[in-house]
Design brief:
25% strand, Pseudouridine synthase, alpha+beta, 2 domains, Structural Genomics Hypothetical 15.5 Kd Protein In mrcA-pckA Intergenic Region, Chain A, 4-stranded antiparallel β-sheet
């Protein structure tokens, strides 16, 4: 019996967008199923016709999965909307359609994962799966141990509380932090809560992927081994809700290998 595929998953599996982006397109009335406006929860079965923004989705065209790692410079916006100047899609100029896994603020720099594999996107983003991301942070004036401890224990933010996290001092004004959450401008808001302003923010690691050997502004495709590790890490996830999900503390910091750029805090440019 053909039980069908949820329409948001159908769109993501054909490389058009992530599931969350598909949900937004459905809510905006930009998706049609067999001639009618689709609604959230619709299922697609064999022989159905799906249209996105007025164009039929090719049921046979499932693109080769692509996974890219970009070391994003400051000033580039983590959006696939090409009407926005400085969008990440135009910046990398990849020949296939890809979209970002999460976001990195325009005024931040560091690692950003892009893919056309919509199913993996939600699984990676889901906080309950405890997929760690490591950042280097510099604030404008010296920060105390008590203030670092307060952030590590969790602070109130956006109607919830940040999960406990690992923070390690680098210098009087710099520290590294490992998060499993992705609340809006979380690191900057955490610093503001204890009375500090972030001057430099750089993402150094996403799960097992680091910036070693990848200069700012450069990108590369993931190796087969890296893709296998990524898919293994998310294989048991249902790709469900990505916000307000309780999860375990992240694992200890990544131990850098050859080519890692040392213990200095990031420098402004």
């Amino acid at each position: 019996m053909d039980t069908g595929t949820r329409i948001n998953k159908y769109l993501s599996s054909h490389g058009h967008c992530s599931r969350r982006e598909a949900d937004r397109a459905i809510e905006a009335g930009a998706v049609r199923l067999n001639g009618r406006v689709a609604v959230l929860g619709d299922t697609v079965r064999e022989g159905d016709v799906v249209e996105l923004h007025g164009r039929a989705v090719d049921t046979q065209a499932k693109p080769r999965p692509v996974y890219l790692l970009l070391n994003k410079p400051e000033g580039i916006t983590s959006t696939t909307d090409r009407s926005i100047r400085g969008n990440v899609v135009d910046f990398i100029g990849y020949p296939q359609r890809v979209f970002t896994v999460g976001r990195l603020d325009k005024d931040s720099r560091g690692l950003l994962l892009l893919t056309n594999d919509g199913d993996s996107v939600n699984k990676i983003l889901r906080a309950g799966n405890a997929h760690p991301k490591e950042y280097w942070v510099q604030v404008r004036r010296p920060i105390s141990d008590d203030e670092l401890d307060a952030m590590a224990r969790g602070v109130p933010m956006l109607g919830t509380r940040t999960l406990p996290c690992r923070i390690e001092r680098i210098s009087p004004r710099a520290y590294k932090i490992v998060l499993v959450q992705g609340l809006n401008r979380q690191i900057r808001r955490m610093a503001e809560y204890v009375g500090h302003e972030v001057s430099i923010l750089e993402r150094k690691r996403i799960m097992h992927l680091t910036d070693a050997g990848l200069p700012t502004g450069a990108w590369r495709e993931l190796t087969n081994r890296e893709v296998a590790q990524l898919l293994e890490a998310v294989k048991d996830s249902d790709g469900g809700p990505t916000e307000r999900v309780e999860g375990p503390r992240p694992k200890d910091f990544y131990q850098p290998g050859p080519g890692y750029r040392g213990e200095r805090p990031p420098r402004s440019r």
